[in-house]
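Good day; I would like, with your permission, to put a structural problem before you. A protein sequence and the structure tokens that stand for its backbone fold form the material at issue. I would ask you to consider whether the tokens describe a fold that such a sequence might reasonably adopt. I set the record out below, with my sincere thanks for your time.
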Amino acid sequence: MSASTRLIDQRVINIDDITLHHFSQGEKFECSAERVGPLIGAKDLGYSYDVVPPGKSACPLHSHRAEEEMFFIVSGTGLLRYGADTRKIRAGDFICCPTGGPESAHQIINDSDAELRYISVSTMMPAEVCEYPDSKKIGAYGGSGEARLRHMTMASDSVEYWKGE
């Protein structure tokens, strides 16, 4: 069996060999990232590697009702928003973001003048609800593949359970 087909070699990737994909949205959000989990055969955990330029964030402030997240700061410094609090973060920090509502909402912002690099790990639940306190949105996610449900709505747009039945 050749080295390229050994199972053990399919479960390892070096951070230097990850191809990053650039993303930007508006003035606040920009990063280069890759979902590493699928590259190494992850089933129950999601892994990502993000590189955030100065003055940007990779995502809005959000909380998870089903998935727990952990971040490890590889290099750089930034600001962690967590619930109503903020604190400085730096290379070597582990950050725990358990499930919950607005009290566990989190966002990492690069408020420095150099790149901020971090790894995130999350439980991969079949269904998830996220809340976005800054924009007052709710996201519902479920399933996989082309049949995956992804629905974003404003929290104020709720309807009664029996409406339309």
